[in-house]
Amino acid sequence: MTYEHAIYENVFTALADPTRRHIFEALRARPQTVGELAADQPVSRPAVSQHLKVLETAHLVSVEPQGNRRLYKIKRDGLEELRTYLDGLWSDALFAYGAEIANRIKMKTE
Amino acid sequence: MTYEHAIYENVFTALADPTRRHIFEALRARPQTVGELAADQPVSRPAVSQHLKVLETAHLVSVEPQGNRRLYKIKRDGLEELRTYLDGLWSDALFAYGAEIANRIKMKTE
DNA sequence: CATGTTCGTAAGTCATTACTTACCGTAAGC
DNA sequence: GCTTACGGTAAGTAATGACTTACGAACATG
What we know:
The structure is a homodimer. Chain A is α+β, with helices and mostly antiparallel strands.
């Protein structure tokens, strides 16, 4: 648990923060520099830098240094990992079944 | 942002916590009471109660009181909301296109 | 009834995290 | 060269969150 870090785990925490979601969604439009991203956010530029770092370790964005600046763009890997995890939950047949089985517990078993 | 709360927002925060993911995954097997869930977790029973509350507001689980106990089971709504949100990101044509457009920024446009 | 379970909630603590300002390195532009 | 723009990192603070124990309400059981 502590030394086995799945990517989707980081994706959840990365996208759990509203500011990070906004940054990520802003990058959907086009790759952007830190300054551009910060201009659209209510927080400071260093804060955006820190958020980008989190998004990067979640494989949601990647950087491409261009001279003075650093151009961030969306990366598919993070969302793919997340989708795979969700598919695992989805495909479980017990999912829809869960509602029915509830009655079985009425008489205490133990 | 503060008075427009989308469900997927809560789903991200709900599943960002490892303990809550474990509880949620445990419920995939079958509906369970709070005590049963707590027995499988390294945290106290009240902690599990609090986690269940978070999962409930994210529409990931639902409760069904049965006499003395409360039977929790998985609810589809939360994951469906999440999936819809992810599909919105996925289907974006600019997604794959983003890598190409990067070069356009080379000369600063202002 | 009186006692046991079961579980939600309150209150307080400790760790995490999101944010700020200050600073430094590096590339660009006179 | 010197100065300005860009952005990562450090350090400190304030807010959030995950946990504990203590308690009380509601049903179950003798």
